[in-house]
Amino acid sequence: VAQERENIAKGNGLEYSLSFNPDLIAPVTTDFSGKPKVAIIRDEGTNSHEEMKVSFYLAGFEPYDVTITDIASGKISLRDFRGVAFPGGFSYKDVLGSAVGWAGVIKFNPVVAKEFSAFFQRPDTFSVGICNGDQLEIWLGVLYPELDELSQPRMDFNLSESFESRFVRVFIQDSPSIMLKGMAGSVLGIHVAHGEGRFVFPDPKVLKNILDLHLAPVRYINHHSLTTELYPFNPNGSPLGIAALCSADGRHLAIMPHPERTVLVRQWHYLPNNCHWQNSPWLRLFQNAYQWCSVSA
User: Is 260 a catalytic residue?
Assistant: First the structure.
């Protein structure tokens, strides 16, 4: 509380800066003929799958609502999809830790594990995990499969020891992420809602390598638009303000804030008078995935 009072008093309001035109690409809402398919994967406790479906739909995808049970029973195979998206929520009520139970279902069910292994090994696929989905991708080692389990990044409790539901600002940095292409240099507002959102790096060499390869593309920033670890600008205390990680090939993104909950302009908690966007800038993240699928088809 003392940190929040001190730091908020230094603030100068929410100001945004875009390096791209969010209205350059119009939302696609025509028929599904020939559109790339994306599986919105959910499990017990998922609660952001509807927003995720809308986001991919507006970007031009054919989204499918897919449960882990669908995959385990053989009803649906991931071989038919170009992308998978893991939404936010509280899978299995976080009783084992955020996304730990969900990760266990995927890793230790042989049918499900085989499906995901085959999907991630294909060079024409992409994935995104948001909030609980971010935690899931971290636990599964999707981003850095070359690392042993003890060297993998981890997610830990917010330093505030509280669930944080806020509207914060982030800076997008240069990275190989296909979903953030053309967005580097932008300062955007975004919603956060998590209790275990702090990135932890057990091996300092791994963190250095991630930074050297520009694999931490989204950072929390303070009122001077500088990356920060100060609360509440950084709601969880992640080192260097890290809010997202991506794979070296750019195909996989794990992001703790919720771009799918700010994919429409009217969902933004605050807009200055000089913002006259027709499309939310965060829609571009999903449109980038669509463009990548179209080019690499």
Answer: yes
115, 137, 164, 260: the catalytic one is: 260
The residues, ordered by sequence, that sit 6+ positions from 14 with a Cβ below 8 Å of its Cβ are 167, 169, 189, 270, 272
Which long-range contacts does 75-79 make (Cβ < 8 Å, 24+ apart)?
A: 76/39, 77/115, 78/39, 78/115, 78/116, 78/118, 78/119, 79/115, 79/118, 79/119
Pick the catalytic residue from 115, 131, 223, 293.
131
DSSP reduced 3-state for 253: strand
70-91 pLDDT per residue, tens: 999 999 999 999 999 999 999 9
Residue 209 has a CB neighbour count (10 Å cut-off) of 15
Amino acid identity for residue 158 in this structure: N
DSSP string for residues in 138-182: HHHT-S-TTS-GGGS-EEE--TTSS-EEEEEEEEEPP-S-GGGTT
Residue 44 appears among annotated catalytic residues:
no
Residue 32 pLDDT exceeds 80: no
Measure the CA–CA gap between 93 and 217, rounded to whole angstroms: 29
pTM of the model: 0.95
| Residue 50 is a catalytic residue | no
